[in-house]
Amino acid sequence: MYQNMRHFVLFAFTLIIAACSSLSSAERAERAAKVAQSVEKALAERRYTVSINTMLPRRGKVVNVSPDYSLEVKGDTLVSYLPYFGRAYNVPYGGGKGYNFTAPIMDYQATKNSKGNTRIKFRTDNEEDIITFMLDIFPNGNATIDVTAREREPISYSGQMDVE
């Protein structure tokens, strides 16, 4: 009798856990759809911020950075506050501004692939350099940024798009 009761309790407990996990997966799917919709809306409006959490210099290891760094697109304006480690070829004495500037965006192109990922490519000029940005933004808000400049070695960043 005790053995049967124990099996029954174990079976009931298993059913409860299975029911909770299926509810949880439905909630996760709903949340993922909501995030994807927010990402899509921000990209369509060209108003979004990508908060950076790691960077990958061409000559080195992945470096975790503080959450203060970001890349922000405001219509036709770029606000770049990104750290830089790497070789600089021809920059002002003291290192210059690096990738900390506000400048107009030129040649903005956005394409979407079959998986729902968006690739954005644009360039900008500041007093020191001509810089090309290539962003890969995924439906879940994750993003990678490849930065290529004329006077500096290329560098990559990864982070998360800030969504509502």
Task: Write up what this structure looks like.
The structure is a single chain. This protein is α+β, with helices and mostly antiparallel strands and 164 residues long. It has 1 helix and 10 strands. Strands 1, 2, 3, 4, 5, 6, 7, 8, 9 and 10 form a 10-stranded antiparallel sheet that branches. β1 (47-57) and β2 (63-64) form a beta hairpin. The longest helix has 44 residues, at 2-45. It is elongated.
* Helix count, DSSP H or I runs of 4 or more residues: 1
Instruction: Note the beta-strand portion.
Output: 35-45%
Report the radius of gyration as a whole number of Å: 23 Å
Number of strands: 10
Largest sheet: 10 strands, antiparallel
Helix content: 25-40%
Note the run of SSEs as H and E: HEEEEEEEEEE
The SS-based structural class is alpha+beta
How would you sum up the global shape?
Answer: elongated
Quaternary class: single chain
Low-confidence residue ranges: none
Q: Span from first to last CA?
A: 55 Å
Overall average pLDDT: 85
